[in-house]
Write a structure and sequence with these properties.
292 residues, Elongation Factor Tu (Ef-tu), domain 3, Rossmann fold, 5-stranded antiparallel beta sheet, 9 helices, 29% strand
Length: 292
């Protein structure tokens, strides 16, 4: 059992939790994730590590409320326990002295980006970060990103701030205007990662993306998380979650992520009906968010 020591509602559909898990905090590296089960009846689902503290023995996670499992997790309070947390899983990010890096994120993607940027800076890289959000109300951790990046830019979907509505627009302009970029990292919405990969491809800038296919066991046994990269089948849980964005078959990934939408909506509706009152701490009922 893993105790929740801190909970924060970051924006209406995104929650931050700090949980005690010393054995995972000891081994965690940037790019890795955990698989959780909220209670005995819960399904296993993956969340990226947004930070860890070896002294306190704690992990940071942040998640979008998508359906039944994330809604269940969001209903837990400080002092409650998560039944299982398994990890750290997946291959850590390859971190070297690349030179100039662009780190792009949307929604929960800012979580895994924070430890990644810290590690890139330790290796002497220059980091320009770009954060994409629907509008100002869905923007969070901008201050954190600014405090560890050399430069930070914001792209808001409603056009209310910054020049670009999509992060990929910034990436294209940055490269077209002659900035030297040696490596791009993108975490968050599948659509954003796909568009950023398409933006960097003509410039030949290697672009690493953190893929989020459906996962079940997280150990390479069930095959649920398979993706096609460069024409080869890869299991994201053991061979990823990071891959070369220029080689990912994005259409297949999107199709597979949507495969169980009807069943997921049914599971959510059944659970939600009986639990509306347990949504303590949330000011309004969060809306479900598109995964792509
Ligand atoms: C390596 C990895 C890291 C991730 N990190 C984060 C994170 O840090 N924060 C965050 O908000 N989300 C993250 N996700 C996605 C997260 O796992 C799903 O949003 C979550 O499982 C949804 O479950 P649900 O029951 O609430 O929603 P559901 O209604 O069951 O599903 C909604 C959508 O979520 C996706 N999904 C459902 N079940 C899974 C599953 N077992 N594995 C992966 N995707 C699933 C599907 O695309 C589905 O259409 C990550 C996924 C992966 C693979
Ligand atoms: S989640 Fe089962 S093989 Fe990756």
């Amino acid at each position: 059992m893993y105790k929740i020591v801190k909970k924060e509602v970051l924006v209406p559909n995104t929650i931050y939790l700090k949980a005690e898990a010393p054995e995972i905090a000891w081994k965690a590296r940037p790019g890795q994730f955990v698989i959780l089960r909220v209670d005995e009846a819960g399904e296993r689902f993956p969340l990226s590590l947004a930070g860890w503290d070896q002294d306190d023995g704690t992990l940071d996670i942040l998640f979008l409320i998508m359906g039944r499992s994330t809604m269940k997790l969001s209903s837990l309070k400080e002092g409650d326990y998560i039944m299982d947390i398994v990890g750290p899983l997946g291959r850590p990010t390859e971190i070297e002295s690349y030179g100039n890096t662009l780190c792009v994120c949307s929604t929960f993607g800012v979580g895994p980006l924070i430890p990644l940027i810290a590690a890139l800076k330790e290796k002497g890289n220059r980091v320009v970060s770009i954060m994409e959000a629907r509008d100002e109300a869905f923007l969070f951790w901008e201050d954190r990103l600014r405090s560890i990046s050399d430069e930070t830019h914001i792209a808001l979907g409603d056009g209310s701030r910054g020049k670009h509505r999509l992060a990929s627009g910034f990436v294209t302009e940055h490269l077209k205007s002659g900035h030297k970029v040696d490596r791009v990292f993108a975490y968050g919405r599948v659509f954003m990662m796909m568009e950023c990969s398409r933006a960097t491809k003509p410039f030949g800038v290697k672009t690493i993306v953190g893929l989020t296919p459906i996962m079940v066991d997280g150990t390479g046994m069930c095959g649920c998380c398979r993706v096609s990269v460069g024409g080869q089948t890869q299991f994201t849980c053991v061979e990823g979650p990071e891959f070369d964005g220029h080689s990912v078959d994005w259409e297949l990934l999107i199709k597979r992520k949507r495969a169980y939408l009807r069943e997921e909506a049914q599971a959510f509706d059944l659970w939600e009906l009986g639990n509306l009152r347990r949504m303590a701490g949330l000011t309004e009922l969060p809306e479900r968010t598109s995964v792509v």
